[in-house]
Design goal:
SH3 type barrels; alpha/beta; Rossmann fold; 967 residues; 34 helices; 6 domains; 6-stranded mixed β-sheet; elongated
Length: 967
């Protein structure tokens, strides 16, 4: 056996008096090998390292399973063995495409939320765009997939990128629901990192799991350099449309593209993943899979459909599964006539002879200027005043200006006076808002701490005016009304969202610009949302309403629109166009799902431009309505947008259980355990640790399913590298396995000063259980296994060895992990059966008396070698079966990669052949692009080979031995 085979991934090795598990073996330039390992013994537990075998020859020892030490378990009821076997069972990593752990997260999973994970786990690489509509719970769906990858040993290092305003919200959701500890690197977190670690250290290696804003990375050159040198198991990009390739965000796109090559798993989240530009959407698909689309300017859904890269649903698609979770929204339109002062301002606006390039023209350009100012006026006089003054300042730069400009200035000054005449009493929308908020019909009470109000406006000037006016007219303190807009710092945005969800804060009214329409949760204490002005984009309607009408809303969402009606025909027509947008949003909510299908551009700014164009052209409202209808014909063709954004294009792999089934019925499975639940295991393990001396102080309340625990020093050390927000005061842990109780604590914690639950959810992913499992494993001597002398269970002279056999792929991911029960009689192996089946028959779930029967240890030692040999034969059969099944798939996949690569190179030649550039420039482009294509396919091919090729030598471990005793 050569050295590389001897150093098999999965094998255990002693180096520098510590025990490590080998994850990967690579050849070194000095003729030896590079061992990539993870620590097992207490001193190095959880640490990763690399060793050169040529340098560690004196301290390196490969642990041979046939030399495993055997030690009789003399503890009462075989406590030590039961706990040790349980810890080993919990380490078994699944290699199938089922849900193994996430169904037990601190949430009530519904079938549709499992679909993205089920779809991703069927793929060779877990790279997916979760494009569900606003409010369906994309963060939860991402958490389910991340949890499953962590369960498979593929989630040690995680990076999450999200908006500044959503960092705390995302961090809490991942911790509260899935116990995934993300260290928040906002402006305060970044400063803390700089203070706590040496300047030359990479913070992305210091903290395994981090969350940061992509704009922070974009602005911080130091951290961007660190980013380029780090690698992750999982990267999650929230609101991923912000990193698609388009004008104006090239740095975001470049960062995301870089990150897409620095991770195995990539999870993108976006309710609006398409902006109508096929190249923009293709950029997201090619981040997920660079082999997917050969020509970003010309492709169809089939180019990526079978790769399982996208999943998208709307409320109407899943409403039968979550009838109790989604309340049917109530929509109220309040129409009110414009006041005489407003009508005067409208007319003054229309009387302005707007100029373009110094000349007045009745053509499009002049109307565009008018529409821009009119947009501000539709929001509020305050916003229109700011826009008017800005226009006057711009014209003043041209003084003395052309004659046409001078006329415009005079008209603008008249408009300014007309706007100044619209005080609060003459502002119809505002007066109606006041009346509504005070009315018993609306039902809002400013004194109620759990009934808060969200008011949206397009203009910051409008919400600033509303803030000052509402405080006076509603007699609200300045702490009761707060603004949320993009000009605030990341810390301020996060704090405002936090405060809005906590009953003890004085905040009652949140005035939002559309920066708050993306992603953030405002539904905890609010179900009333007011559109003070109407958006000019259908997608913004959807985003705004989704802040309170979303998964988890316990009240019926109430959406209120304030609609001004003017007698001026031009103004009346333009306002009617905005009303049509509102009606289309409601139509999409009830029937279609995606409002973006109406206008067909899939981008809020592009939708606004279409709306502006309709007003510039004085398009009748009925014509505007008729022009933008979902096209049935296009859904049947090859148009990418219609194909992607209709339910019929849902990936074939997506699996959804029926409404009357529980998601665990078909797609989820639990591993075998010797304990009834996690609390039973923890209780027994803690009792065992304290058997001889007090190691950790704890109390168990079985009636309440809770555990109180004071962290030991080694447990405290683990939390040094975890977010400070999750550390309990004085390291006094309160944990529960009761999901209902924990959910109540999560809701209560939103009212707490810290807004983090004081109660922790006790399940396999919590650091306490991980620490406890390591402590129990350490109770069994290194490279040894317990022996259980059972009375009346085995035949006289019968021995059974419980043996684990593991074969990883070249990426060190377990592919085959079987437990075997090797039955021996006398000195012979007589049969081998599935280890889990044997454990079930033995039934160690119930403690049994340990009589400490005398055993023939010499006989057991003599059996180690034939037992290991028998398991090696079993693993060889498993290896052959795997190779027979997957070798043809590997060949087929590599052939498909060659075909796709040829397509991309052919497409490159086609593009260059039609180019009018000089030959040397085309040659340079060809060389650059060809290099990129070859690199992308070589990387992907290497990844496929490493994933689908298993190591030749299994790692074998004797877990325990069972004997009938000496006779």
């Amino acid at each position: 056996m050569d050295n590389q085979a001897r150093f098999a991934p999965g094998g255990r090795v002693e180096i520098r008096d510590c025990e490590w598990i080998i994850r990967q073996v690579d050849s070194a330039s000095d003729g030896g090998y590079i061992l990539k390992v993870e620590g097992l013994s207490e001193l190095v537990s959880g640490k990763s390292a690399q060793f050169l075998t040529s340098l560690e020859d004196q301290t390196l020892k490969m642990l041979d399973p046939a030399e495993t030490l055997l030690e009789q378990d003399s503890t009462a009821q075989f406590e030590k063995s039961r706990l040790y076997i349980e810890t080993q069972l919990r380490q078994i990593i699944p290699a199938d495409d089922r849900i193994h752990l996430a169904q037990h997260a601190a949430m009530d999973p519904v079938p549709y939320q499992l679909d993205p994970a089920l779809q991703a786990l069927k793929q060779p690489r877990q790279r997916i765009l979760i494009a569900d509509a606003v409010g369906l719970g994309k963060t939860l769906e991402a958490g389910i997939l991340v949890t499953e990858l962590m369960r498979r040993g593929r989630g040690k290092r995680i990076l999450v990128l999200t908006l500044k305003s959503m960092m705390t919200q995302f961090q809490k959701e991942f911790w509260n629901r899935f116990t995934i500890p993300l260290t928040r690197l906002d402006s305060i977190g970044l400063q803390r990192v700089r203070n706590n670690i040496p300047g030359n250290h990479n913070p992305f290696y210091y903290y395994d799991k981090t969350i940061i804003s992509i704009d922070t990375l974009k602005q911080d050159n130091e951290f961007r350099r660190h980013l380029e040198q780090a690698y992750w198991d999982i990267i999650v990009i929230d609101e991923a449309h912000n990193v698609a390739k388009r004008s104006g965000n090239s740095l975001r796109y470049k960062l995301a593209l870089l990150l897409s090559h620095r991770t195995d798993a990539l999870i993108m989240l976006s309710a609006t993943p398409h902006d109508g530009n096929s190249e923009s959407f293709a950029s997201l698909m090619n981040m997920l899979d660079p082999t997917a689309i050969s020509d970003p300017a010309d492709y169809v859904k089939d180019d990526f459909r079978d790769k399982g890269l996208v999943v998208r649903r709307f409320k109407k698609d899943i409403k039968d599964q979550v009838a109790s979770e989604f309340k049917e929204r109530v929509v109220t339109d309040i129409r009110l006539p414009a006041t005489p002062a407003e009508e005067g301002a409208y007319q003054a606006l229309l009387d302005v002879p707007f100029t373009y390039g110094g000349e007045h023209s009745a053509e499009k350009n002049g109307h565009l200027v008018r529409i821009g100012l009119q947009k501000a006026m539709f929001s509020s006089p305050a916003a229109a005043l700011v826009s008017t003054r800005n226009r006057l300042k711009k014209l003043a730069q041209h003084e003395p200006g052309s004659a046409d400009e001078q006329v415009e200035v005079q008209a603008l000054q008249s408009l300014q006076l007309a706007l100044q005449n619209i005080d609060a009493t003459q502002f119809a929308k505002y007066q109606q808002l006041l009346h509504t908020l005070k009315s018993t019909e609306f039902g809002w009470n400013k004194k109620q701490t759990d009934d808060r109000l969200v008011i949206f406006s397009e203009r910051i000037e409008t919400i600033r005016w509303l803030q000052s006016q509402l405080m006076v007219d509603l007699k609200l303190k300045d702490t009761a009304v707060t603004l949320l807009h993009g000009g605030l710092s990341d810390i301020d945005q996060q704090q405002i969202v936090e405060d809005f969800g906590k009953t003890e804060t004085p905040l009652r009214v949140l005035l939002c610009s559309d920066v708050a329409s993306e992603g953030i949760n405002l539904h905890y204490l609010s179900h009333r949302l007011v559109h003070f002005d109407l958006p000019w984009s259908l997608m913004v309607f959807q985003q705004r309403n989704g802040r309170v009408d979303r998964y988890g809303q316990s009240q019926v969402p109430h959406i209120l629109y304030l609609l001004t009606e003017s007698q001026n025909a031009t103004i009346q027509g333009d306002l009617r166009i905005l009303e049509i947008l509102k009606d289309k949003d409601q139509q999409a909510y009830k029937n279609i799902g995606d409002p973006a299908t109406f206008m067909g551009v899939y981008d809020s700014q592009a939708e606004e431009k279409l709306t502006e164009s309709a007003m510039v052209a004085h398009q009748p409202a009925e014509s505007f309505d008729a022009e933008y209808q979902p096209s049935v014909e296009s859904n049947e063709g090859e148009d990418l947008l219609s194909a992607f954004f209709t339910p019929s294009s849902a990936p074939a792999e997506t699996v959804t259980a029926s409404a009357d089934s529980h998601p665990t019925d078909k797609h989820c499975t639990d591993g075998y355990s010797l304990f009834a639940n996690d609390l039973s295991f923890v209780k027994q393990a803690l009792a065992a640790l304290n058997r001889d001396k007090l190691v950790v102080d704890y109390r168990v309340n079985e009636a309440a399913n809770t555990l109180s625990l004071t962290a030991s020093e080694d447990l405290r050390y683990r939390f040094k590298y975890l977010p400070i927000e999750i550390r309990p005061d004085n390291f006094q842990f309160e944990l529960t396995t009761d999901r209902v109780r924990f959910d109540a604590e999560v809701r209560r914690s939103r009212q707490d000063d810290s807004a983090w639950p004081k109660l922790h959810y006790l399940w396999p992913q919590h650091p306490v259980i991980d620490w406890l499992s390591n402590r129990i494993t350490a109770e069994v001597a290194r490279h040894s296994a317990p022996v259980l002398a059972l009375s009346g269970t085995l035949a006289p002279g019968e021995h059974v060895f419980l043996v684990s056999g593991l074969i990883p792929n070249r990426k060190a991911h377990p592919v085959i992990w079987h437990w075997h029960a090797v039955h021996c009689v006398g000195a012979q192996v007589v049969r081998v059966e599935a280890g889990i089946d044997f454990l079930k028959q033995l039934d160690l779930t119930q403690p049994r008396a340990n009589a400490n029967l005398p055993i023939d240890l010499a006989a057991l030692y003599a059996l180690r070698k034939p037992v290991v040999s028998a398991v090696q034969q079993q693993m060889a059969h498993a290896q052959q079966a795997f190779t027979a099944e997957f070798a043809p798939q590997l060949v087929a996949r590599e052939a498909e990669l060659e075909r796709l690569k040829a397509n991309q190179l052919a497409q490159l030649d086609l593009q260059l052949s039609s180019s009018a550039q000089e030959a040397q420039f085309k040659d340079a482009r060809r060389e650059k692009r060809s290099t990129e294509i070859n690199a992308a396919f070589n990387d992907y091919r290497r990844w496929v080979r490493d994933t689908m090729t298993i190591e030749p030598v299994p790692y074998i471990q004797i877990i325990a031995a069972f004997t009938s005793g000496q006779h």
